[in-house]
Write a structure and sequence with these properties.
There is one protein chain. The chain is mainly α and 121 residues long. The radius of gyration is 16 Å and the shape is flat. The protein contains six helices and no strands.
């Protein structure tokens, strides 16, 4: 899926240099929502909408597609921001690919995901 290629693009050293600015904009959107809130809302919403459309095209019901897209977008943002603190891009990349490995099989099935029972992850 193209999501792996997007991760590769966003996590290249050239793009990493822009991430601190992105983090500043995110923080500003939280601290000053009336001034900057729309910007991050549009960025996160745009990616979520795009992936929701992709998942709907795979045959997922819209609510499930939106949930899967939200999980992927929000996790990706976190995994792009965390290495800014410790510089461990290899760990972030491994975590992102593990997330995809666990999620992707469910994207190709139109049946609802199974609920985990008590004590089962």
């Amino acid at each position: 899926m193209a999501v792996r290629e997007l991760w590769r693009l966003f996590s290249t050293p050239d793009r990493r240099a822009l991430l601190p600015l992105s983090l500043e904009v995110m923080a500003a959107s939280l601290l000053h929502p009336d001034r900057y809130g729309a910007l991050m809302h549009d960025v996160v919403g745009g990616w979520t909408h795009l992936l929701t459309s992709v998942f709907c095209d795979l045959g997922m019901p819209e609510e499930r597609a939106r949930t899967e897209a939200t999980l992927l977008v929000d996790a990706a943002f976190g995994l792009l921001i965390a290495p800014l603190a410790d510089g461990d891009w290899d760990r972030a990349g491994a975590a992102f690919h593990t997330l995809l490995d666990r999620l992707e099989p469910g994207w190709w099935s139109t049946s609802p995901p199974q609920e985990a029972g008590p004590g089962i992850p």
